[in-house]
Amino acid sequence: MIRERGRRLTAQAVMLLAVLAAGPRASEAQEASISGTITLAPTARDKLPKEPLLIITASKTVDPRKAPIVVKRVPAPEFPYQYTLAEEDITLVGSRLEGRLYVAARIEPGDPAGGPTGALEGAHPRNPVPVGAKGVDITITTSVPPPTAEAPAPVRKPREAGVVRIGLLWSGSTPFGTSSVPDELRLAFRDLGYVDDQNVTFEPRYAEGRYDRLPELAASLVELKVDVILAAGDSAAILAAKHATGRIPIVMMALADTVQLGFVASLARPAGNVTGLSFPLAAMAGKQLELLKKVIPSLRRVGVLWNPSNPGHAPVLGKLDASARRLELGLQLLEVRGPDDFEGAVATLTRSRVDGLLVLWDPMLYAHGGRLTLLALRNHLPTISTYREFAESAGLMTYGPRLGDIFRDAASYVDKIVRGGNPADLPVEQPLRFELVLNLATAKALGVTLPESILVRADRVLR
């Protein structure tokens, strides 16, 4: 009897170990969520647009300048509406559903022609709420709920008179026309009071995808004694600028994991002459894989194009492999050093019967994106990459930061430095917003049906 009891205990122990090895129970996994009910006040019900779009957000702060980590869109909801926010709803790359969050909701016209609705919004009265909370109920009214804290207004120190000379160091080529300076970048500076050839001048230098030219181009900007260097395109531009000078302030606006690459000591305290914008490139690539899987549930194997000349790519690949395993995907990594490698790479992927293609952000791949997307389309390969232009050139979808946002944030850094700010003390910021762009014509050509859950999340749908 004692032996029988011992056998039962051993069997129970084995079962317990199996449960522990399998990870958290379903009930524990569900704790990483927030749920509740959204209702309409009587006055709000009378002002609903014909095609209402319910937008539910969860944020770490009430500061409107900071992007929420969750933006969930619900077309034509029926009220009261029961909602759940979970990890899969996260829209801000690199974020987790954890801590305490401010939960709010608003209603907008699903059809822009539906006209304005007024202020139809509401927030949970006891914000912030802990992740795992249930009964996080919201009543949408016609009045704007007062914020629970005020965002501090930025203090702008008067800058000294004179012309600011800005050096632009780009890894890639320019798609911006003969002016060589993006219009959106000029506009970002103009909004801060800088007018071309009056109190600001630009010195653009483009490497045209030839990374060996970057040290020479960076040195030429140092010789010109520019006031600030804007390093853009990828991590190679930052590296070249950093090697060229330890004195001239450098503002990054390139997609790179800057702390991991050693460009700054930390996001909070850069501790050098480099500051600016840091992009979680590995996390963003993982999110792109996740989106491709959501669009194509049958996805099993994905090709990944990367450029070994890009210093930021190699560190991404290991983390991307972990993301793929979590999604139960196999990866096939292919190096491409120039557009002449595209046909061979796509042919290899086609022979390997991959189900989709992830194109890592790279200035060379961006500059020749149209050629690459058409090759993929001819070979029936669904593609995803970073910037909107990739989708506009027949790619299936893109997910990444908006160039306009990058330019505005970079101009703000330059303005702070011109007004006396020390780059070593200016915290490095990560992008606030990422946009999802879908190409319906490409989806139709590929025979891909885009799920409604993806369509409602899209910031742009190209028809």
Summarize the structure.
This protein is of the alpha/beta class.
* Class by SSE composition: alpha/beta
The largest β sheet comes out as:
7 strands, mixed
Through-space gap between termini: 74 Å
Mean pLDDT: 84
CATH superfamily of the largest domain: Response regulator
Notable characteristics:
Immunoglobulin-like; globular; seven-stranded mixed β-sheet; alpha/beta; Rossmann fold; 463 residues
Helix and strand arrangement:
Layout: H1 2-21, H2 26-29, E1 33-40, H3 42-45, E2 52-59, E3 70-75, E4 81-86, E5 100-109, E6 121-123, E7 129-130, E8 138-140, E9 164-170, H4 183-191, E10 200-206, H5 214-223, E11 228-233, H6 235-244, E12 250-254, E13 274-277, H7 281-295, E14 301-306, H8 314-326, E15 330-335, H9 342-351, E16 356-359, H10 363-367, H11 369-378, E17 383-385, H12 388-392, E18 397-401, H13 403-418, E19 434-439, H14 440-446, H15 452-455, E20 460-462
Parallel strand pairs: 1-8, 9-10, 9-11, 11-12, 12-13, 14-15, 14-16, 16-17, 17-18, 19-20
Antiparallel strand pairs: 1-4, 2-3, 2-5, 5-6, 5-7, 18-19
